[in-house]
Amino acid sequence: MAKIRVSYEYSEAEDKSIRLGLFLIICGIVSLFILGFCWLNPTIQNMQCKAANCTVISVQQNGEMFECTFTCGTDCKGTSLYPCLQIFVNNSESNSTALLHYDEQQLVMNPKCSYIPPCERDNKKNSEEVLMWQNRWTEQIRSESFPCFFNQQRRPDDVLLKHSQDKNVLLHCVLWPLVTLLVGILIVVLTICARSLAVRAEAIQKRKFS
Question: Which residues are listed as membrane-spanning (predicted)?
């Protein structure tokens, strides 16, 4: 009995589905590379921070003023000044003096200062905010130690008061590109399977009437 052959051609809708799936697959792979290079590697390095106990040694303003950017509406933006507050602490793990910073972001924005206030248009308000922090940490000099974080390899002379939750960043760096990649693969596989079943059904139907 001769085997019945059925022409195997994708319809326009099926062709679009496969193109969409391939596009999502490419986007997923590219996103993994981009996010891995821009976010994943720095985040893994930040997660190497160790917990320690710090005690305040000195609190002072070094006399320098730095610019910050404020926004006061949709089309309102400018710069103002804030004084540089330096809080020096003793790191219990390395038993050395280090400069305290509020978090990783402020450390990157201004490695010379311990605190960057929420930027206000008025320089006086910025100075008052910094002065509040200065008074708070001056009182801490005679108090007990507090938890801090440091990275001996990358930043031996700096410690952090707050350490961001980098596990969430890692999750999003991997999760969404993988979801995009899997959805693209699923669309391509389902389209091919659906077309293959349609061809088999057509072949069976022709065999019955032959």
Answer: 20-42, 174-198
